[in-house]
Amino acid sequence: MRDVARVAGVSVATVSRALSRPDDVKAETLERVLSIVKETGYRSNQMAVQFRTGTSRSIMVLVSDITNAFYAEFFKGIEQYARSKGYVLLIGDTSEEAASERVYFDMLTSNKADGLLWNVDGIPTGYFQADDRSDLLDIPLVACNGIDDLDLPTVRIDNDLGGRLAAEHLLDLGHRRFAQVCGPLHHDSVKRRFDGFNLALRQAGIQVPDELTIPIKLGIDQGRRAAEDLLGLANRPTAVFVHNDATAIGMLHTFLKRGLSVPGDISVVGYDDMPYASAMTPELTTVRLPRRRWGAAACEMMIAVIEGKDIESREISIAPELKVRDSSGPPKA
Amino acid sequence: MRDVARVAGVSVATVSRALSRPDDVKAETLERVLSIVKETGYRSNQMAVQFRTGTSRSIMVLVSDITNAFYAEFFKGIEQYARSKGYVLLIGDTSEEAASERVYFDMLTSNKADGLLWNVDGIPTGYFQADDRSDLLDIPLVACNGIDDLDLPTVRIDNDLGGRLAAEHLLDLGHRRFAQVCGPLHHDSVKRRFDGFNLALRQAGIQVPDELTIPIKLGIDQGRRAAEDLLGLANRPTAVFVHNDATAIGMLHTFLKRGLSVPGDISVVGYDDMPYASAMTPELTTVRLPRRRWGAAACEMMIAVIEGKDIESREISIAPELKVRDSSGPPKA
DNA sequence: GTGAAAGCGCTAACAA
DNA sequence: TTGTTAGCGCTTTCAC
Predict the structure, then answer these.
(1) What distance in Å separates residue A203's CA from the closest CA in chain B?
(2) CA–CA distance from B222 to each of A279, A326, B271 (Å)?
(3) Best of B52, B280, B286 to disrupt the A interface by mutation (most A CBs within 10 Å)?
(4) CA atoms of B102 and B99, how far apart (whole Å)
(5) In terms of Cα–Cα distance, which of B289, B273, B283 is closest to B252?
(6) Are residues A189 and A208 in the same domain?
(7) What are phi and psi of A231, to 5 degrees?
(8) What is the CATH number of the domain that holds A21?
(9) Tens digits of per-residue pLDDT, A232-282?
């Protein structure tokens, strides 16, 4: 910058102004400085800028398992919005280990990132296991799932609605005996779709029997196992609501392998609408989550929080929608 | 830090040393300083550290489309290795637009990241369209695909082998009439699996006719379309090699929908081994890419380059392996 | 509209 | 082994 200043015959202050607040510089001077910047290929040292201004223009996004394809669209939404505002994404994978969470939280408290986008189920244990919980509220933090008794700005999916949509669809088709394969119930997102589903059934006077409520770690292989379990039952359900598509296709695969017809013998409704859902045979009926929009909205709130703008609403809820395809149909007569 | 120093009755230099090079501090002093650091909850300001040391300990990873689930495991491999070395991941999505590439490249030249991991097909156009190509070589840059006539440290998948594995498997099954659905042939990774496949066939005295070589943008929907095209042909192939699993499941879906049996009427071999491949019905035979290992290896080389260590080999090639499942079988008699 | 100068928090060279 | 001190490159008051 000093070199540019010298060549342009101005002070470094003027160069700095030309670059960051061009309006404060006389047009003529501005032009001269800018042309020399271009000529010399000068780029400001972002480390110095960040240090001086105390802002890194980067957002840390924490997920529990980056391997989960579910996050791909979510990241895209964040990335697009962030880039449009001049922010970069730092991505961290906690693997649900407190130690990893801690590493990433420390980056915040040590100014490596300006804010944290928390898309992990549950509370950030790694952080305030050792510290005071209230510290959390001082950090620019936006949650992407509800977090019990912690009043954080939140952008979440309306999972109650998601569960309800699945239930109503299956009820409409005439089903009366259901199974629900859900994730760990202490996760807010899981709990809500669970409740939404059950509530809708209850309103129709139906309850899912305990042996047909199957809480597992979600995933393809776990889905296979859950399907086997279901097949072992005497009185099978005619429809299953599965808490994500990965698990649903594992189940679907097992059902078909064991000679069942879907939806003839059993209807399957997934959750997420992953790209492969529509390429299954039969095509998977599922609850579609607008993941990209979710990411963008979360990022928008994140930046608002970082920049201290006042937020209209501290809690945004994004509605999923039902995608009816071929894996659900009326029960056998 | 000054506060810690004061309380501990030492100079800031000693605090700094206690934190970064504990061996240079007397055990007794070290203990005292550290206990006060803990007590006060002091965290060093990483912006200042980065600024002063001129290193950000962050790695920029550029992909063409973060939405592609293919990258998930790749990121995981990078993240794990990076974190173990105290680096963070910056993730950028170029959407194959020169402007976006440029944004991210600028972050490097302006010290926002220490190095760039380039997992985009083709050369970084956005960067040296305007500048001199040789600049590229000054940046700590590791490519994850071969890049024509640019001698960059590279960690790539052995796609020649991948293509060959698919070909040999299908030849072994007795196939003689093939189709190949490939990505854009100007992409090195695509070209190589294309060549590997064709070379193996040629060695068996077989050639893929032009009308059965179908270069498209890869993806589920494009796979559906390619399948329709194939079905319209008079003299159908008995086997298809498809350049990724997403495209393969799109084709599979269409084949089944149109009443073909797979592999009875046509065998399908994919590429990647995405998690869903094993949950298709029939389960998808595919060429498995060890994506996590790939990411870790790439990250390892990246850090070696950043830290100026000498590298044993500037070009690492990772072998894929064939996963034989149910979508491939002998051709009809 | 521009320049001089202080100083952000830290590290490292050098001195003691 | 520890302390003193210069200075990393920039932004921003304040004075002109």
Answers:
(1) 35
(2) 12, 21, 15
(3) B280
(4) 5
(5) B283
(6) yes
(7) -65, -25
(8) 1.10.260.40
(9) 999 999 999 999 999 999 999 999 999 999 999 999 999 999 999 999 999
